[in-house]
Amino acid sequence: MKRMSLRGRSVLITGGAGFIGSNLAIALVRKGAKVTVLDNLTPHQGGSLFNLKPVEDKIEIDFSDIRDEASIKRLVRGKDYIFHLARQTDHILSITNPFTDIDVNVRGTAILLEAIRYVNPETRFIYTGTRGQYGKAVKLPVGEDAPTNPRGIYEITNLTAEKIIGIYNDVHGIKSICLRLTNVYGPRSQMKHDHYGVVNWFIRLAIEDKVIPVFGDGMLKRDFLYVDDAVGAIIACAACDNCYGEIINVGDPKPETFRKLVETIVSIAKSGSWELAPFTSERKAMEPGNFASDISKIRRLSGWNPKTPLRHGLSKTIDYYRKFRKHYW
Amino acid sequence: MKRMSLRGRSVLITGGAGFIGSNLAIALVRKGAKVTVLDNLTPHQGGSLFNLKPVEDKIEIDFSDIRDEASIKRLVRGKDYIFHLARQTDHILSITNPFTDIDVNVRGTAILLEAIRYVNPETRFIYTGTRGQYGKAVKLPVGEDAPTNPRGIYEITNLTAEKIIGIYNDVHGIKSICLRLTNVYGPRSQMKHDHYGVVNWFIRLAIEDKVIPVFGDGMLKRDFLYVDDAVGAIIACAACDNCYGEIINVGDPKPETFRKLVETIVSIAKSGSWELAPFTSERKAMEPGNFASDISKIRRLSGWNPKTPLRHGLSKTIDYYRKFRKHYW
């Protein structure tokens, strides 16, 4: 496969102070890219300047909103790669009020694409969606051709953004990759509340020596992915010419149960405990069941593979939050 | 199957002065329903008061915008059935500017659903999407479980609205039906430009004795549905308890070629002609290929079947527009 180097290339990362965005920014700086981060640091969303501390002297940061058309036009100019991670990511907000998701995730993506179309149509565009776009798995592992029946507004708006990107790719010739990321965990996720990734939230509870509630019988399976692996996948795809125009899963074909997850967290943390808890009816309606990603496509197209065993990733995550707790709690 | 009567029931039709909406309003008045039409008569969209002439003394009309939250809350109160047909429907606008589609079709639907959830959660909600939500057919005829890969912003936003409705059905308990209508033609569609239904546009060209351009080799197939049949399907589903919670195709399993369509139009109109024309590259990218709806589900759930042969429907349509041309051109 033909692989492009990101050294010396100008990149924009929307949502670049957030969980995955900041890890991506750090990795791209290490690869020699010239990184601009766009993040408006919306309170209670994932953005935090502390996340970017390791590279703060090596990047530019712009605090515009993704919906600010003039700023977006200015920012996309001259960029070789645009990684679009800005999102309304609060699952609880998205079920009580659908409008922010529609505005940020759908309209925000369209604003970015229109700016690219008019100002910089030769750029390369990489979007990170979610495995939640599939909804309940019809069979496991879940390939990219599986039905997409998302069970929440956040997941629907992510799917809509992906489909709009497909139009800009096919009709307007914008070179694009749409990734579908599984449950990602690791350093640099905000930990203030439980509206985001469940793994990191469980880690907080363990660090605080609290009881982790595991819904149902704890035997639901998910493929948990360490954030360095997710970032590796994003960069591997961006660098591969044959990934453009494609929808690509990023996950792990070997899922683990929630019970195994919390047992591992508690055993590494040496604090906290867990117990089974009944589903609320709302959670039950949105619960997509077992999930594992079919990653044969990304392996074939980019050569990427997840590298971090769950125990190792959890251990690094627990160490990170113990060390930097005051910046995340 | 258990069938409910609409006689004496209060119904709201959003987009009720438009093509399908006005035909639906007239049919519902004839069935004895108390009809309120919501339509802001956006210029160059389908809404027209002339469409409602036959029932103007028997309905209420409200000119609010579907995005006007206060008006929507007022309008949904006390309605037994809400038929949601208001849409940004201009295919050409939707490809040059995605924002109106997102705002009207996605956010507008969410505004309506939120109003229902707070003001009238016991209502019954019927949504008319499009077969364009499928995109290119993987196999024919296309069933409701087929992949949904829409090839335009209009179609994407219709799919998004459908998926949001699914959440309100599943999570918030709003009783909903999502229909996917094939190419509908017939009286009461605006005819000012070619940004809407292709069949009606071809009829205008024939009436004006012009040349009808048929893209490609004319052998593409579609299932064309006369508007009275579409309206019959909408009402049949609304009246059937077992249709709620379902996504249901409305179409005809016997498709016809575009060549057959235009030959029939020209032979009935006794004016106009047709010729083959090459696809533009933009049209080519958005062209979904042959299409025919699998309607076994609607037959099973509601007993509905299309009744109007193509030749008969075209003939009634040509008569209508010849008679009322000045109101539509």
Provide a compact summary of the structure.
Chain A has about 325 residues and is of the alpha/beta class. Chain A has helices at about 20-30, 70-75, 90-95, 100-120, 155-170, 200-205, 225-240, 260-270, 280-285, 295-300, 310-329, and strands at about 10-15, 35-40, 60, 80-85, 125-130, 175-180, 185, 210-215, 220, 225, 245-250, 255, 275.
Mean pLDDT of chain A: 95
Q: H/E element string of chain A? A: EHEEHEHHEHEEHEEEHEEHEHHH
| Helix and strand composition category of chain A | alpha/beta
- Quaternary state reads homodimer
Poorly predicted sequence stretches spanning 5 or more consecutive residues of chain A: none
Characterise this structure:
The structure is a homodimer. In chain A, helix 1 (about 20-30) packs across helix 7 and helix 4 (about 100-120) runs parallel beside helix 5. The first copy, chain A, has eleven helices and 13 strands. Chain A is of the alpha/beta class and about 325 residues long. In chain A, the strands form four sheets. Chain A has a seven-stranded parallel β-sheet, with helices on both faces. In chain A, strands 7-10 form a two-stranded parallel ribbon. Chain A has a domain at about 10-190 and about 225-250 and about 290-310: NAD(P)-binding Rossmann-like Domain (Rossmann fold, 3-Layer(aba) Sandwich), CATH 3.40.50.720. The termini of chain A are far apart. In chain A, helix 5 links the parallel strand 5 and strand 6. Chain A has helices at about 20-30, 70-75, 90-95, 100-120, 155-170, 200-205, 225-240, 260-270, 280-285, 295-300, 310-329, and strands at about 10-15, 35-40, 60, 80-85, 125-130, 175-180, 185, 210-215, 220, 225, 245-250, 255, 275. At the A-B interface, helix 4, helix 5 and helix 9 of A face helix 4, helix 5 and helix 9 of B.
